[in-house]
Design a protein that fits this description.
Blueprint lengths: L1 H6 L4 H10 L1 H7 L15 E5 L2 E4 H16 L9 H27 L6 H14 L6 H16 L3 H18 L3 E3 L4 H9 E10 L1 H6 L9 H9 L4 H10 L5 E7 L3 H4 L6 H8 L7 E5 L5 E11 L14 E3 H12 L2 E3 L7
Antiparallel strand pairs: 1-2, 1-9, 3-8, 4-5, 4-7, 6-7
Helix pairs in contact: 2-5, 4-5, 5-8
Length: about 350
C-alpha cells in the first residue's frame, strides 16, 4: 500500500492519507516523548472534530514531528516563531484530515482483527531491523506509547490500517463528468456564464434589508422564481444585494472560476442549467446560501494543443468526497490562542 501511495504522491489527497498511515510507524520508532505535556494530561482533548476528541498527547507528538522536519530547513536548532505557528496550524489540519478518514472507516465497518494487527506490528520491527521482544513490547513499549499519546497505541495502528483499506477500496474510483467523446469535445469548446448571489441571514438582518414580515425563504424563492436575468438583477437591486458574474469560462477553467465549496455533484448540477431551468442553490458550511443563475453559454476557439483527443473528464471520488467533508467538518480547538 505504501508503495502505491509513493507512486501516486503527486495527488494532494493521497499525500494527506500517506501522512496518516505512517503516523503510527513514525511515532513507534521516531518519537521520543518529552516528560511534560504542554497541554496537561495526554488524554485531555486538544481539539474536538465532528464530536470526536483528539488527545493532546497525539497532537503534541505530531507537532514535534512537524517541527523536527522543519528544523532540517534551518541552520540552527531553533525555528522562527512564524514557522512554529505554521507547524501548529498544519498539525491541527492533519489531525482534522485523519479524523475525517477514521470516522468514515467506522461508518463503513472497516474492522482490523488481532491477526492483521500483530502482522503489521511485526512488519514495523522487521522494516527497522529490530528484534521483537513480546514481553518488552507488551509490558514496556505499549503502555509507554499509549500513556504518552493519550490513546491506546494499538488502536492508533488499527485506525491507520483501516484508512489504508479505505484507499484500497476507493482510491482508484473515478466520477465521470462526461459520457462520450462528442460530449467531451463539446465541453472543451463551450463556455458558460453564471450569476452568483450570496444570501446571509445575519447580514440581511443587520443591514435591515428584509422588510417587516419578510423572511429568508421568501427572498430565496423570489430569486428562484426569476425567469430572466432582468428580473434577477431587479430583485438584487431592490434588496441592495450584489450579484457576481462568473464567466464566461470553459469547463477546463472551472476550478479557477467557481467557488471551492462546490463539489463534483454541485458542478454537474450547475453545468446542467439552461434558459429553461436557470437556477441552482447551494448551502455553505457557514449556513449561508449561494444562488446561481444561468446567464448564457457560448463557444470558444480551441488552442492547437487542445485539439488532440483526451480522456473523458473525470474526478476522483475520494477527492470530491473528502473536499466536501473537510468543508463541513466542525472543529473546536482546545489549544491556547496562539495554537489555533
Amino acid at each position: 500500500m505504501l508503495d502505491i501511495l509513493r507512486r501516486n504522491a503527486s495527488s494532494w489527497i493521497i499525500k494527506v492519507v500517506l501522512g496518516a498511515i505512517i503516523l503510527s510507524f513514525v511515532l513507534f520508532f521516531g518519537y521520543q516523548a518529552s516528560n511534560q505535556n504542554a497541554y496537561g494530561s495526554a488524554s485531555a482533548p486538544a481539539a474536538t472534530i465532528n464530536g470526536h476528541d483528539v488527545p493532546s498527547g497525539l497532537y503534541q507528538a505530531q507537532l514535534e514531528q512537524n517541527l523536527n522536519q522543519m528544523k532540517s530547513s534551518f541552520q540552527y536548532d531553533t525555528v522562527p516563531d512564524f514557522v512554529k505557528n505554521l507547524a501548529e496550524t498544519n498539525t491541527l489540519r492533519q489531525l482534522v484530515q485523519r479524523t475525517i478518514m477514521v470516522n468514515a472507516t467506522d461508518k463503513l465497518n472497516i474492522a482490523i482483527n488481532d491477526e492483521e494487527l500483530a502482522a503489521h506490528i511485526m512488519r514495523i520491527y522487521s522494516n527497522q531491523g529490530a528484534a521483537f521482544d513480546p514481553l518488552q513490547y507488551r509490558y514496556e513499549e505499549l503502555p509507554y506509547r499509549s500513556a504518552q499519546l493519550g490513546i491506546n497505541f494499538e488502536q492508533l495502528i488499527k485506525e491507520d490500517l483501516a484508512i489504508s483499506h479505505f484507499y484500497d477500496y476507493f482510491g482508484n474510483v473515478k466520477y465521470p463528468l462526461s459520457v462520450s467523446a462528442d460530449e467531451e469535445q463539446a465541453m472543451k469548446t463551450k463556455t458558460w456564464t453564471f450569476l452568483e448571489l450570496d444570501l446571509d441571514k445575519a447580514e440581511l438582518q443587520k443591514n435591515k434589508t428584509l422588510k417587516e414580515g419578510e423572511n429568508l425563504d421568501a427572498l430565496k424563492q423570489a430569486f428562484l422564481d426569476a425567469k430572466d436575468e432582468k428580473t434577477w438583477n431587479k430583485l438584487a437591486k431592490q434588496y441592495k444585494l450584489t450579484s457576481k458574474v462568473l464567466g464566461p469560462f470553459s469547463f477546463a477553467d472551472r476550478r479557477a472560476t467557481l467557488p471551492a465549496s462546490l463539489s463534483a455533484d454541485d458542478q454537474i448540477k450547475l453545468f446542467s442549467l439552461s434558459a429553461a431551468t436557470p437556477h441552482f442553490e447551494k448551502e455553505t458550511a457557514e449556513g449561508k446560501l449561494s444562488l446561481f443563475f444561468f446567464k448564457d453559454s457560448g463557444e470558444r476557439k480551441l488552442k492547437p494543443e487542445e485539439e488532440a483527443a483526451t480522456d473523458l473528464a473525470s474526478t476522483s471520488f475520494i477527492g470530491s468526497w473528502f473536499g466536501k467533508a473537510a468543508l463541513e467538518a466542525k472543529v473546536e480547538s482546545h489549544l491556547n490562542p496562539q495554537s489555533k
